[in-house]
Specification:
binds alpha-D-galactopyranose; binds zinc ion
């Protein structure tokens, strides 16, 4: 697929005219036009409408919608509608309904509810994708295919159990290999026949909702479930592709959503798209990190912001309004991190059911004289001005943070040493340091080409898959800098411990070995002392470290391991490796990473821009620097931007320039 997937920034979002009488559609378009809306995502949940019974398809309404939008020259994002089962299918074929973690087979209801291994579901979903492609695939206004919606969840039905056994046979070939990989001698769980394997849920190996007696089977189930659902995506994609060879195909992802291995998924998608729904108290760094992860899924290729609310959500505990200017600022934050589209959920607010209190471009009042609409219209005018300048722009960042779904699953299944250890939290602590310093970061997979980075950061890289340690060694040998932490290098891809001392295959690289791991409860703390006498608190876990070639950067200063190393640095080939044996309080992590970035020669985009978010996109040697004030207070623009042009106003930045809360500059 080419670099510029779209000719303009798609601006619009989920549009459900099927929920409204036809008279309203023209009024919708009249209002949308005032906001320069140029795109609509249709048919997301219309399966029951376009296939009212097993034998009957009825596209008459969708034809009208697509005609109307096509005449108005919209970029149409056409969804395949397969994310909510029609009632007739649930009733006639109960196997299409999922069985949950507790083993209960569901009835008709809700959405995102199909068993991925149901042949009936597969047959009808494939057929639907085919029919849609045949009918609409040649329409030049169809700019993108949107398969299903927010794929996710799990199924524990008998069909899935059968498919799991086949998946396992392919993976392990022999029962002996499987017994060994899952360490089934433990508790005498040895398997002799493939059909003795049952799915790991609350009725079998599950301990509570998210722990397991046998992580081997549970991690394999996560992989299998992600693959099963991915197979549904590929099936619809292939059905479309055999008829429409050119239109990009996507499905909307959900940031750090745990259940699906998005790196694997992205390989099958032409363009990544995702839905951004931060809560009122989500740190800005966390949203930025999610955007960067979505950009990282396809090695830095720009993505679609498929959904965000113009104002308010309904499904969070506290659905605060976006403050004046906030939606605009958040939209530019998405663009700054790689979005080529700004799309809302949804264009007109529903009259009933659970999303009637979800914000929309057209609110219940039904006209355009609202604060929300005015803000949508202002942004629409600006994006229209930007044209295609930014589309396809990438980044050239020098810091990579490793993210891996196998690691996510395995780390969080561990029973011990500390129940509060959460993967995304750990990654976010490191990400936040770079975010606050305005050092732009790529979120990358463990399979990426590391050589383009000056610094790689891999917090809690618990699982080291085959070949990874060697690739990291080569990277550091050649001059790369590498930071890793406690709970790294512990297990292989089957979650079997690397014997001979922690951190297993990273021992050489780090020049240490770890003998024991202490766990601290929330009310407990230890302290670390740097050689410079700086002292900081640390929490969660404390590795008891022996030096094998590394130098000690900081020691613990309380408890029976006082005076032993907590943080080390090792020279390896041309490069350096820092091992952080505990969770440092924020100031301590800043103190350490300041040294790391200095020694790794990493520079921020702008120094001393405390509290502004500054990031960059690049295309054809043209740099676009985004300066966002996401705080509540006014901030000065850093001096390095004096005299430069702000693309949004075509004015030049002056010395005295101040950014108010939610102000944005795009500096060229
Ligand atoms: C998700 C879904 C949408 C809608 C929004 C509401 O992102 O994809 O259909 O339910 O949430 O926030
Ligand atoms: Zn199932």
């Amino acid at each position: 697929m080419k670099n510029k997937m779209f000719k303009r920034i798609l601006y619009g979002g989920d549009y459900n005219p099927n929920q409204w009488p036809e008279e309203i559609w023209s009024e919708d378009l009249r209002i949308f036009k005032q906001a320069e809306i140029n795109s609509a995502t249709v048919n997301v949940f219309s399966w029951a409408k376009i296939q009212p019974s097993e034998k009957n398809y009825d596209f008459s309404e969708l034809d009208k919608v697509i005609d109307k939008l096509s005449q108005a020259k919209y970029d149409i994002v056409l969804a395949t509608s397969t994310a909510a089962l029609p009632a007739w299918m649930s009733k006639r074929y109960p196997e299409v309904n999922r069985t949950d973690y507790e083993g209960r087979q569901h009835k008709f209801g809700q959405r995102h509810n199909a068993c991925p291994n149901s042949l009936v579901y597969q047959k009808y979903a494939r057929k639907m994708a085919e029919k849609l492609a045949e009918r609409y695939g040649q329409n030049p206004q169809i700019t993108c295919w949107h398969i299903n919606n927010e794929y996710g969840g799990q199924c524990y039905c008998e069909n899935c159990a059968k498919a799991f056994r086949v998946w396992l046979q392919q993976k392990y070939q022999t029962i002996e290999a499987l017994n060994k990989a899952w360490n089934l001698e433990f508790w005498g769980h040895t398997i002799y026949e493939w059909d003795e394997i049952v799915l790991p849920n609350a009725l079998s190996e599950g301990i509570g909702k998210d722990k397991t007696a046998f992580s081997g089977i549970s991690i394999d189930y996560c992989r299998f479930n992600s693959d099963s659902i991915l197979a549904n995506f590929k099936m619809e994609r292939d059905a479309i592709r055999s008829i429409d060879q050119t239109t990009p195909i996507t499905t909307n992802l959900m940031g750090t959503y745990k259940t699906l291995d998005y790196f694997k998924w992205a390989k099958e998608m032409d363009i990544v798209s995702w839905d951004n729904y931060p809560s009122y108290n989500t740190p800005w760094a966390q949203t930025a990190m999610r955007h960067d992860l979505m950009r990282g899924l396809k090695n830095g290729q720009s993505f679609m912001l498929m959904e965000q609310t113009p104002s308010q959500q309904n499904w969070q505990p506290y659905n605060s309004l976006k403050r004046p200017g906030q939606m605009r600022a958040q939209s530019y934050q998405a663009i700054a991190h790689g979005a080529d589209t700004i799309q809302f959920f949804q264009l007109r607010r529903s009259v009933g059911a659970c999303e009637k209190f979800h914000g929309a471009v057209i609110e219940h009042v039904g006209h355009e004289n609202t604060r929300v609409f005015r803000e949508v219209a202002q942004l629409g005018a600006e994006l229209n001005q930007l044209g295609d300048a930014l589309i396809g722009a990438t980044s050239n960042n020098k810091v990579g943070i490793l993210f891996d779904w196998d690691n996510y699953w395995a780390l969080e299944y561990t029973s011990g040493p500390n129940k509060d250890l959460k993967y995304v939290d750990q990654i976010l602590q490191y990400y936040t340091y770079f975010y606050e310093k305005n050092i732009a970061v790529d979120m990358i997979s463990v399979d990426s080409d590391f050589s383009q980075y000056d610094l790689l950061v891999a917090p809690v890289l618990y699982m080291i898959k085959a070949g990874l340690a060697e690739r990291l060694e080569n990277y550091v040998q050649a001059g790369g800098n590498f930071v890793t932490t406690f709970m790294s290098g512990l297990v292989d891809e089957s979650d079997l411990v690397y014997l001979g001392g922690y951190p297993g295959p990273l021992k050489n690289l780090a020049g240490i070995w770890v003998e024991e791991i202490d766990a601290l409860a929330p009310e407990q703390a230890n302290k670390v002392n740097f050689a410079t006498k700086e002292e900081y608190e640390c929490h969660l876990l404390c590795d008891l470290i022996h030096i094998e070639g590394a130098e000690t950067i900081a020691n613990y200063s309380t408890d029976f391991y006082t005076g032993t190393p907590a943080i080390t640095k090792n020279s390896y080939g041309e490069g350096k490796v820092w091992y952080v044996g505990t969770q440092l309080e924020k100031n301590g992590l800043t103190y350490l990473l300041d040294q790391v970035t200095q020694e790794s020669k990493i520079r921020p985009i702008a120094e001393n821009a405390q509290g502004l978010e500054i990031t960059k996109r690049v295309i054809d040697d043209q740099e676009f620097t985004f300066v966002l004030n996401l705080s509540q207070v006014e901030k000065r623009v850093p001096a390095i931007f004096n005299g430069k042009k702000n693309l949004l106003t075509n004015q030049f930045v002056s010395k005295e320039m101040v950014l108010k809360s939610f102000d944005v500059l795009i500096i060229i």
